[in-house]
Amino acid sequence: MAIRIKKVSNKKELKTFIRFNYELYKDNAYSVPDLYDDMLNTFSPQKNAAFEFCEADYFLAYKDNKVVGRVAAIINRRANETWNKKEVRFGWIDFIDDLEVSKALLDTVEKWGKERGMEAMVGPLGFTDMDAEGMLVKGFDQLGTMATIYNYPYYPEHMQRLGLEKEADWVEFKLTVPDKLPEKFVRISEIILQKYKLKIKKLNRKELKEKNYGQRIFDLINEAYAPLYGYSQMTQRQIDQYIKMYLPLIDLRMVSLVEDEAGELVAVGISMPSLSEALQKAKGKMLPFGWFHLLKALFIKKPKVLDLLLVGVKPEYQSKGVNALLFYDLVPVYQQMGFEYGESNPELELNKKVQAQWSAFESVQHKRRRAFKKVF
């Protein structure tokens, strides 16, 4: 029977769209489910600030009247203008191991994009860099993270068979928390502090709110990430949204800031306990007991693994070793809190500056993910 594609047009179909991923991966030991309510907010034009400059539709694939795939078609006008491109993104793509299904989904995105004047298709990407991006091509036997995509090995095989080509790769590292910082690392960090007249800043909740550090952190991220592949500057509404959503959950001990002598923010590192196993136990739901698993991982019995969510350095400080100061501050915190390993976020494979920061630690590059592209 032919594949039938249907655009999501009501709440019931949107629920089906979200839940399809949970069903497809319910028996997989490595997939980490998103929280259902978070996904509802992400896909809502009223809740997601990215819709200020994005357009999107969501599609379900049916075979024998059964859902067998899903995909989101997205145009990020801000990114297209920044990079002088006319690209439609495909995101949140999932499908059974049937080439007819994956082809029908991608053909739908291509047609949708062409109707809106686009000249190429790229993905998997979300609305912005704050969403998970990149299809896993290595590391299928590694536990996923809250901020990344997990997919079966047949996904990239389908992309290649359908004529899509590599556009960009990201790599991820698993790092061992050392028992002691190497003396050379400590010495270099102290030299950098003195040479550039920098200081490490630790926040408390009062300062975070009263001195507007949330805004300052995201302004720095906008500046630091501006040259990175596909990045679109966060709007003020997006920044307000992320401050409200994420900062209350962060353990401030696991946040490190570096300021210059004038008190200007020049670097930030944000980490948190891994929520991967807690999210698996929650099965995508906060109720009835999902909230307990998440709170336990955050505040009660922390896992042995932490997620290195975000590292940002002002461009003029990026070649001066300032990254080292973040870990000069944070590694002793990780030791005290009992963490054994850290998971880096995806880093563009060409971003050697970022990858160089792991050279002082025992690490292994254990995952790789890819954005695929097709020019029309």
From TrEMBL:
InterPro entries: Acyl_CoA_acyltransferase (IPR016181), BcerS-like (IPR039968)
Domain of life of the native organism: Bacteria
Entry-linked PANTHER family: PROTEIN YGHO (PTHR41368:SF1)
Protein name: N-acetyltransferase
Organism: Phocaeicola barnesiae
Taxon lineage: Bacteria, Pseudomonadati, Bacteroidota, Bacteroidia, Bacteroidales
